[in-house]
Design goal:
The protein is of the alpha/beta class and 299 residues long. Helices cover 32% and strands 20% of the residues. The strands form three sheets. Strands 2, 3, 4, 5, 6 and 7 form a six-stranded mixed β-sheet that branches. A four-stranded antiparallel β-sheet has the order 10-11-9-12, covered by helices on one side. It starts with a helix and ends in a 10-residue tail after the last strand. 29% of the residues are buried.
């Protein structure tokens, strides 16, 4: 019996997993652990304090839909982008005051009985975000509008997007969502819930990249650089396909096409619009975009 217990012990299982992992025909995945980091003696956390955020909602429209789950965890990173210390994870459910769609329940497991009478602790959640140097989400353009609508105290903070501000393919990854990216680092998780998504995000941010640095360091460096938003106001009839093919998106509130470009690409893009869209008869509007405005709701 003692041999059976020893064989099934964590140490034995880890040894077997390590042995299998050495064979190129196998890949071992380990269940994602909690993200807990305590600052080691003599190590300074550096200049940046971040707040990782994820939400589950009743739908994808921040105007008409509502948050049903919010998770946050503060962390501190050193100058190389390594997470050296983490705060306590926070997690709240909230009653949206409306039925939760069946598709959301199938995805998250959350139904009306789980959230009835529950609410987010606004002072705690808002201060965690407001006091951070930056906020990070996997898909910041989907998360930020919901968070700022629900927590006005958190509005206007710098945001980082782990999905779009890291060159995943250039760094040897197949992009395909947070769970798939984490699998490529050797970890997996089960539940599609805000709290587990935040933990997965932190592990992904801390992952070292093959050409140096970490996912977090790369994402912060990318998004901290200002860019330009080009607004194609009153685009001539017949240019829709041209603009869509160039990567422009429709802003339904302002009723114009727009695209964000880097500072180095601005001159070429501006000239392209003037020549190919306006035919030399007009010019687009443009505005500077920093990480304080990026990923916010269009308007």
């Amino acid at each position: 019996m003692s041999d059976v217990v020893a064989l099934g012990s964590p140490a034995a299982m880890d040894a077997m997993a390590s042995l299998v992992d050495r064979d190129h025909d196998f890949r071992v995945l380990r269940r994602m652990p909690p993200m807990r980091r305590t600052l080691a003696p003599g190590v300074r956390p550096g200049m940046l304090a971040g707040c990782a955020v994820h939400v589950e909602t009743t739908g994808g429209d921040p105007v008409d839909d509502a948050i049903i789950e919010l998770a946050l965890q503060r962390f501190w990173a050193d100058a190389e982008g390594r997470i050296v210390m983490t705060g306590r994870p926070h997690h709240w459910l909230e009653d949206p005051g409306r039925p939760i769609p069946p598709g959301v329940t199938r995805l998250t497991g959350l139904a009306e009985p789980d959230v009835v009478g529950r609410t987010i602790m606004d002072p705690v959640a808002g201060s965690l975000i407001a006091d951070a140097d930056f906020v990070v989400a996997y898909d910041a353009s989907s998360v930020r509008p919901f968070v700022e609508k629900r927590l006005p105290l958190a509005a206007g903070r710098p945001w980082v997007c782990a999905m779009c501000e890291v060159g995943w393919r250039e760094n040897g990854f197949e992009d395909g969502g947070l769970p798939h990216l984490l699998v490529q680092t050797g970890m997996f998780y089960d539940a599609h819930r805000a709290s587990t998504e935040v933990t997965a995000l932190l592990h992904l941010l801390d992952h070292p990249l093959p050409f140096g640095g970490t996912v977090l360091g790369t994402a912060v460096e990318t998004t901290a650089n200002p860019s330009w938003a080009i607004d194609v106001v009153a685009a001539p009839i017949g240019t829709t396909n041209l603009l869509e093919g160039r990567g422009y998106r429709w802003n339904a509130d302002a009723r114009h096409w727009w695209k964000e470009v880097s500072a180095t690409a601005f001159d070429d893009e501006y000239e392209w619009i003037v020549v190919h869209v306006y035919g030399g008869t007009s010019k687009p509007r443009f505005r500077s975009v920093t990480w304080c405005e990026r990923h916010s709701a269009p308007g």
